[in-house]
Amino acid sequence: MIKPNLPQRWPKPPTISYYAVAVLSVAMAIIAAELITRLLHAEAIASSMLCAVIFAAWFGGFGPALLAIALALLAFHYYLVPPINSFTWKHDLFAVGISEVPRLILFSITSLFVAFMISAQRKATETLGRSRDDLQAAIEDQKRIEAVLRRSEAYLAEAQHLSHTSSWAWDVRRREWAYRSAEVYHLFGFDPEKGAVPLQAFRNRILPEDSDGDVLELIGTHVDVTEQYAAKETLEKAFDEIKKSEDRLRLVIDTIPALVWRTRPDGAAEFFNQPCLGYTGLSLDQALEFGWTSAVHPDDVASLLETWRAIWMSGRRGETEARLRRFDGEYRWFLFRNQPLRDEVGNIAKWYGSATDIEDRKLTEVALRESEQRFRDFAETASDWFWEAGPDHRVTRISEHVSDIGFVPSGLAGLSRWDIATDIESEPEKWRMHRAMIDAHQPFRDFVYTVNGTGSPVYVRTSGKPVFDAKGNFLGYRGTVRKAQAELAHVTRVTTLGEMTASIAHEVNQPLAAVVNAAAACRRWLDGGTPNLDEARSALDWIVNEGNRASEVIRRVRALANKTGIEKVSLDVNDVVREAIALVQREFISYRVSLRMELAPALPMILGDRVQLQQVIINLVMNGIEAMQSVMDRPRELVVGSHQDETHRVRVTVTDSGVGISAENADRLFNAFFTTKSNGMGMGLSICRSIIEAHGGRMSTADNVGPGARFQFTLPLHQEVTL
Q: Who wins on pLDDT, 75 or 456?
């Protein structure tokens, strides 16, 4: 028998490759779980390992799936060993808590069930393909046998016509013709095209003298019908095989876990498998032609039919997604696929299709998009800026917020951080150690350096971690960067407190001395022959008051020294000024400077951070005191005032009678690292202005009547900030 030209299948790969796929799928799942845990802070180990088992079961069968389950269990177990949710190196591999055992058991059962179902589906799909090939082969054999029979009959008919010989068969039991060749009709003068001719009509054509008399002999012919009989048996066997193949195919189609259908070339449906009808709740008559569209979600019908028409017109396989109604009324997402079947000349004879439930995949995609959007929102609203660098440590991507320090993100692409840093020459050892660390592909944290994108130096702090691919190849770094002004403000406060040590000690010593004196007086009043309880009570009240005074001084010092975040509250600016002046009172005595307070009463409340505003006032006051050290020909007087300006904002002024500000230095006073002091850092006024601007205000110098300098800052009212 000549084999029909069936579609050639891909050669079956070796069995070991299926087990290699299982190992590779678990490895990829481990990497995916680690990335999702670190980047999205989500526990994805179970879903990742289950995906690996599904992948191994589909491409390799149940055996590789069992290997994938075993590897996934080991990975799951390792993932749960403290520290959990990580694949970092762990020393105690048997430290999983008893509470995690049910998760491992549940994962094992689920994985075995899923592996079994996927393997069964894979085997059913392969069986369906083989049955389809067998059916096509049987149909081809039947067509060839019928062609041989028709050709033999044509040869026999032509031979009888040329030799004027006819053949017939008579059924003795039924006394009727079983078969008459066409030449029988021609010999007796009948037209075979006009239908059957009764026996009597043939007898009427026999001469009377030949119809009467006795039968003397019988003359007949023998015809070899072996080939016809063998062909008949072969045809009957072929029909039996076709029937069995159809039954097997029907069983496979109704067993596979997918919805299967067949349509005519114009797309009208003519067959649905039982799972399809059972899922939708439609009968076969209801689903035929285009009745199946009643089970499609109304919002998806138009787009689904439009996609199908485009596929039918193209003559190529295609797929689309739509929601399908279950028999209980619930809609679920399905993936619809269509495949054409062509005849011998290449024309499309049928369309075969299937639909697979992808509702769970859709929900996973939605959750993934929501997770990505949350991460994007965090990245866009965070105070840190995100950056990425390639293997050569040059920037490939950076947040738009970097424009806050004067850089355009696109302008930083292709540059390394040492290309824009301004402290490489002043701190070479710091940069040498940093370069050595990143060349060794080690993570780093809180690396501080200076840049100059706005015309004045700005401190930035960056952290980063190396990125590797699945093969361990180094891809670059990812990390964050932010301005380090808050840390510098804290350093400035602590430095200022160090310079005010004598003043602070004096402020604390005064109430402590008063407490000692009051305690001694109280003891004398109590030791007398008749204790004077009223005087003793007054002395104790004095001790309490002076103790509270010392405690308040210490509280203010601690507030300035603590490294805390900004906490804006409603404040009276005059109270803030008085508290700040109290901390530097000793400095006025040490430098022989007189203080004059010109605070306007009943000023509106402002919204601000008490500690930061005190830092600004202390810095301005200390600058004014130090500016008058060299003054000998006039009184050293510092005036601190407050009032509302013409815009109804609160203004605070600090005026000294020192040497004043030269014209060449006036434009650079607020630049970072600019100072006129021999031992100054040059950060005080820069940080003060940053603090005032962060409060929505403005800081500047003003013309002073007489010698010295005048600094001032304005702050918006509490109502303005709220609006």
A: 75
